[in-house]
Structures are given as C-alpha cells and as structure tokens.
Amino acid sequence: HFFSVFVFVFMEIEAEKKLLLGFNFLYGLGNREGINFEYAAKNFSESMSLGNASAAVFLARMKKYGYGCPKNQSEAERLCLEAINLNIQEKAELGDQFAQVGFGFMYAWGYGVCEDFSIAVDWYRKSAAQNNPIAQYSLGFMYFHGYGVTQNSDEALKLMLQAAEQQNNEAKYFLRTYSSLWSWILVQNTISS
C-alpha cells in the first residue's frame, strides 16, 4: 500500500513538472532555448500520459492554433475530451489554476463542453486571481472583444499589462499590435474624465 501511494505521488509530481516545462518552452520562460514548440508538445504529452488533464488542454491549444505543428481542430477536440476523462473539471473546482484556465479554453472553444463564453470568463477570472498570466491574457482578450462580458477596454488593458509583466508573449504581441488603439482609448478616457 505504501509503495502504491508513493508511486501515485511521484507520478503527480512528475506530471506537474512536465506541465511546467511545457509552459516554459511554449512561452520561452526560464530556459536558454527560448520558445520551443517541439519541447513544449513533448512535455505536455508526457504530462498528459501521467494523468495531467491541464496538459491535454494545452496540447490541444497548440494543435488548435498550429503552434509548432499543422492546425488540427479534430485532434484538439479529442485532446479536450481526454482532459474531461482526466477530471479537469474536478481539478479546476479544487482551485488548480492551470485546470481553471484550461477548462476556460474548453468553454471558449466548445470542445468537450458546450461553448459558453460567460463560463469561460468565470474560469479565466478564477485562474487570473491566482496571478496566472495565461488566464490574465485570456480574460483581457475576452474583455477587449466583449466575449462573455461587457466590452471594457480599460479592464482589457489592465489584464494584458499584468500578463505582459509576467513575460506572456501573447499579451506582449497584443499590446504591440493594438498600441495605437490603446493610446487613443487612454486619450478618450482622459478627455471624458
């Protein structure tokens, strides 16, 4: 009995370690190689094989958007169904910030669950409250476009800046892309105050 408990705990720790390595390679954090989609996918796959539901969703995200691989919507959806089998909802409800943002993605995409932007926003918000930069970016994106929430450029900017401060490349790109729009919004807000 002791040995089986030890093996289970070891697998959980190893799965979490592989998940974090996947994030590091996906976002180019804390490694000399920078962004490396191949290593990100490898670590997410290994984490998923050890039972990590969040890893399945982040691998699905890579497939959905073609990060380092051809876009493959059906494979992304299959991976989200695997996350359901790995109890992502339970882990999200227990407060796992990566499961929360992953479950949010699933609701935003309608993969493995019915598409519902407002539920996606709720999960992103829970994860962002734990200072998760992926959730901060995702929630900012929802506020910017008004998906599942009332459109709010100020809130979007605040969240994007928080994510960018934590080296979230998607948030940095978004801020660079829309910098002239942000400047216009800031001027308009100043004039109307």
Helix content: over 70%
Largest sheet: none
Beta strand count: 0
Mean pLDDT: 89
Number of helices: 11
Query: Can you tell me the overall shape?
Result: globular
Strand content: under 5%
Spatial extent as radius of gyration: 17 Å
For the terminal residues, how far apart are their CA atoms?
Answer: 66 Å
Uncertain stretches of 5 or more adjacent residues: none
Overview of the molecule:
By secondary structure, the chain is mainly α. Helices cover 75% and strands 0% of the residues. The chain has eleven helices and no strands. Helix 3 (53-65) packs antiparallel against helix 4. The longest helix is centred in the N-terminal third of the chain and has 26 residues, at 2-27.
Give a brief description:
The protein is mainly α and 193 residues long.
Note the main attributes of this structure.
193 residues, single chain, mainly alpha, globular
Write the layout of secondary structure elements.
Layout: H1 2-27, H2 37-49, H3 53-65, H4 73-85, H5 88-93, H6 97-109, H7 117-128, H8 133-145, H9 153-165, H10 169-177, H11 179-192
